[in-house]
Design a protein that fits this description.
heterodimer; A: mainly alpha; two-stranded antiparallel sheet; 2 strands; rod-shaped; B: alpha+beta; 7-stranded mixed sheet
């Protein structure tokens, strides 16, 4: 049986056929009897109030949620900016410290510092072979005051302090006190000697040397030398 | 229409008409509004949305970080750091006599006079106050007050909140080791483009690729979180790891500088090469530039002479003649030659650097005493073409490729064009020119049992993610047989134990070496101006690990009194100790220099 045939075929079988035919038989009588009853219309009217309240409540909640979300997003944005700034500060600090280490590690600086501490390069070395207990080479002690040969200049990295300062300067770390040095520089700007500032241009913090007494100069050693005291102390 | 024609009696159709009319009007209005909406939102006729977006949209370039240059131990030889330029808008600063600043301690605004602000700025920058005042006064909208200021100083300057003063971040190239390997590393032109050395040849890889970020930003300067955010991340440049050992490089540089200063030479250079791998451990030059400030040395000193300077090598070439003779089966180390005070062949007379009578010499003795007469006599056994081909095999005339600019290939004239004297002089290293690295490469093939490895300077490329990509070694070449290489090694060692180069010996290690002295043609090409003195050697001879060559150009004083032995010795022993090479075992070769 084709689908067209099914559509044209009258529906007669089952209980559905019987029930559908019943209201069709008496339409006018049923409608007239029920018209005055308005119960059906009042039913949704009673339910509408709580529904509207619910709607408004939902709206309010949604609005508040959006507000809270917005606030938290923008707060997070501020936080993000702040953290970024901190990250960049730390990166810069790290870079600066790494550079200082690299400056100290440069071979010519290391050699100059060693020489400053009174070390001399050994020239002739001997070897001991532990497996055969044989000694090869004639190790001779290094001679102090011998010619050290040519001096390779220190790296000309701008802003790095000299590892071995010229004879007129003391301990190289003396001038490197960025935190304490910054405060007096800002508070007593008038007292600063411009010439002194210009001299220390290569060293990052502009430290006014006059007011604060320099720390005890150890010249790289660990025992303070008594006569190194500054007259003002 | 309906209102005019309609009568009060027919209200129902009138109402319908009005309704329809109203509906029509409303629909028309709706259409107009909708149309406008469509025009504005859909088509954006006036370009409003685009203009607004354009105003919010900000593009920032995310600069790629230039890669570092490292030595073989990972010591940083070149890297980039953040620096700041302090810039002033003079118009703003000049007319602002007082400005407000937040006092962080009391949390209130305080008035600061311009004068005081400038005093504080001068203190922070470490500049003269008058100079600062001059710099910030005027009509220019952009003027650089200070360059390359460090981050901590920049931080303090920003906190001063001086009107018109802003700081701009710039990337600055820093070379922490200064002139140690300065010529090899090279330097940058205007802070971005490589101008010399590795910085120049590897510029593309080091540079990387800039990225950018497109985002919408509000009037308060904060990014709009829900707006568009398009990020093209920058691709940082690759790090380049060299085979150089910076400690040894310093040692060699200091040694050659001392030697050159002592003897008043024009320049000198030292190469230390690992014979097993071809890695260049040190390439030292006199007056090496400090890449932080390359202008301090003369322009001619800014390159790497070990690869750029080709010169006549002199007697070091005799090693190649002897190796060719042995490999071709034309001579053996103990063959005897009878040598008079001078030797004449084809009307060309050759003499030695020292006076002697008629002597019975072995081939080893000819090399040990660096005799030109003997070398010509023995080298005659090779045809001209053979001499040419053997020099070519040892890499003469072929530039090594180690990634430095202006690598010299030297001059090896084809044998057909040799004149009557040149055909003999090439046997002892005159009439042919080569760079120091080419000499070292030839000796490396002997040290490595006849196998020539191409020299390496760039060890690997390190990607920003840390992946290390080794530069593959060029295919090795067998130049001479292992047996020949060993015989030549014995001859070189005998030159130290029995011959003239005794001061190259190192206690505890067996050393083989050869000196070279050649006349150096004047720069203007007329005649000769001084000499080139060199010494190339290898150690330990039981299993050669390092080749060291010391070259000194035009030292002052008598050339016969000059020796590079002590320099060679100190650099070689430093290399051996740095790399923990075991002292030699076995008996040193002592080939007789004279025939009994």
């Amino acid at each position: 049986m084709s689908t067209a045939a099914v559509k044209n075929f009258p529906v007669v079988s089952g209980s559905s056929a019987a029930s559908s035919s019943l209201p069709a038989g008496s339409p006018g009588a049923g409608r007239k009897g029920r018209t005055p009853l308005s119960v059906v219309r009042s039913m949704p009217r009673k339910r509408r109030a709580p529904f509207v309240v619910l709607c408004f409540a939902l709206l309010a909640v949604a609005l508040i949620a959006v507000l809270v979300l917005n606030i938290s997003v923008s707060t997070a944005q501020y936080q993000l900016v702040e953290l970024r700034a901190r990250q960049s500060t730390l990166t810069k600090q790290n870079q600066d410290l790494t550079q200082q280490v690299q400056n100290f590690e440069a071979p010519q600086n290391l050699a100059a510092k060693a020489k400053d501490l009174g070390m001399v390069a050994s020239t002739v070395k001997g070897q001991i072979d532990l497996s055969t207990l044989s000694v090869t080479g004639k190790a001779t002690p290094a001679v102090k005051g011998g010619s050290e040969g040519a001096v390779i200049p220190a790296p000309a990295v701008a802003g790095q302090l000299l590892v071995v300062p010229p004879a007129t300067k003391g301990e190289p770390l003396e001038s490197r006190k960025p935190v304490e040095a910054a405060a007096p520089a800002a508070q007593t700007p008038a007292a600063d000697a411009p010439a002194g500032q210009a001299q220390e241009q290569t060293q990052a913090p502009a430290a006014p040397p006059a007011p604060s007494a320099p720390p005890v100069e150890l010249h790289g050693g660990t025992v303070p030398v008594p006569q190194q005291k500054v007259p003002g102390q | 229409m309906a209102q005019r024609t309609g009568k009060p009696a027919d209200k129902v159709p009138n109402a319908t008409r009005r309704l329809r009319l109203g509906l029509g009007i409303m629909l028309t209005l709706l259409l107009v509004v909708g149309g406008k909406l469509f025009l504005v939102q859909g088509l954006d006729v006036g370009g409003m949305a685009a203009a607004a977006l354009d105003k919010r949209m900000t593009e920032t370039v995310l600069p790629a970080e230039r890669g570092s240059i490292l030595d073989s131990n990972g010591t940083v030889l070149a890297n980039s750091v953040i620096r700041y330029n302090v810039v002033v808008d003079q118009r703003v600063n000049t007319k602002t006599e007082t400005f407000k600043r937040l006092d962080e301690a009391n949390e209130k605004l305080v008035d600061v006079s311009r004068d005081q602000g400038l005093t504080e700025l001068a203190a922070a920058l470490g500049m003269d106050k008058d100079a600062i005042r001059e710099a910030v006064t005027g009509e220019r909208p952009y003027y650089i007050v200070a360059k390359d200021v460090k981050p901590d100083v920049e931080d303090r300057i920003s906190k001063l909140q001086i009107p018109g003063i802003v700081t701009e971040g710039v990337s600055k190239r820093v070379y922490p080791n200064g002139s140690v390997a300065g010529g090899i590393i090279g330097f940058l032109k205007d802070g971005s483009t490589g101008q010399a050395g590795i910085e120049q040849t590897q510029d593309e890889l080091l540079r990387g690729k800039d990225g950018k970020r497109l985002f919408e930003i509000g009037a308060d300067g904060l990014r709009i979180p829900v707006g568009m955010d398009e990020l093209t991340p920058p691709q940082d440049g690759k790090d380049i790891k060299l085979t150089i050992n910076s400690d040894l490089q310093y040692f060699a540089q200091q040694a050659i500088q001392s030697q050159s200063d002592k003897l008043g030479a024009e320049w000198g250079s030292i190469i230390v090469m690992d014979a097993k791998t071809g890695d260049l451990v040190a390439m030292a030059d006199t007056n090496a530039p400090d890449p932080n400030d390359p202008g301090r040395v003369a322009a001619k000193d800014r390159g790497v002479r070990a690869v750029t300077a080709a010169y006549e090598p002199g007697s070091v070439q005799k090693m190649m003649t002897v190796a060719a003779l042995i490999e071709e089966g034309k001579a053996s180390p103990l063959d005897t030659f009878t040598l008079g005070p001078s030797y004449t062949v084809d009307g060309q007379t050759f003499s030695d650097s020292f006076a002697h009578g008629t002597e019975e010499r072995t081939l080893a003795g000819i090399l040990g005493y660096s005799m030109n007469t003997g070398t010509v006599m023995a080298g005659q056994r090779l045809s001209k073409q053979q001499r040419y081909e053997w020099l070519q095999k040892f890499g003469i005339g072929e530039a090594p490729d180690i990634g430095l600019p202006a690598e010299a290939s030297g001059i090896l004239t084809p044998w057909e064009q040799w004149d009557g004297r040149q055909e003999y002089t090439v046997l002892f290293g005159q009439g042919v020119s080569q760079s120091t690295l080419q000499t070292v490469r030839a000796f490396q093939s002997i040290a490595n049992n006849g196998v020539m490895l191409q020299p390496r300077l760039i060890d690997s490329y390190v990607s920003p993610d840390g992946a290390e990509e080794k530069v593959p070694a060029a295919p090795p070449r067998q130049i001479v047989s292992e047996d020949t290489a060993e015989q030549v090694q014995d001859i070189l060692e005998s030159a130290v134990t029995e011959g003239q180069i005794k001061d190259a010996g190192i206690d505890g290690y067996r050393v083989g070496a050869k000196t070279g002295t050649s006349e150096s043609p004047c720069d203007d090409g007329a005649g000769y101006c001084g000499y080139t003195a060199s010494l190339v050697g290898m150690a330990p001879m039981d299993d050669p690990r390092f080749i060291v060559e010391v070259v000194l150009q035009r030292p002052k004083g008598s050339i016969y009194g000059i020796t590079n032995g002590p320099v060679f010795r100190s650099v070689m022993s430093q290399a051996l100790r740095t790399y923990n090479v075991q002292p030699s075992t076995g008996e040193p070769a002592r080939l007789p220099q004279f025939a009994k």
